[in-house]
Amino acid sequence: MRVNMHxxxxxxxxxxKLAREGEEVVICNSGQPWVRLTPYREPVEPRQPGGLxxxxxxxxDFDDDVEITTAxxxxxxxxxxx
Length: 82
Description:
Structural class: alpha+beta
Distance between the termini: 43 Å
Number of helices: 3
Order of helices and strands: EHHEEH
Shape: elongated
Helix content: 25-40%
Strand order of the largest sheet: 1-2-3
């Protein structure tokens, strides 16, 4: 939805509600898109890799099962795609 600046000033609450409900609201100035009204979202902290060092153990014989290893190595990601 595109609205002009004057309409946006007089109907900000309605436009904000529409934006929170997922509607794209673009405010125009002299017919040109100027700003996009978007809902506020709390910033997400970037994940820090690691943190479980010494808590996960892989068995020494993890790769010893030749049948399973062969099945994985010879499988296709998308069967029937070619």
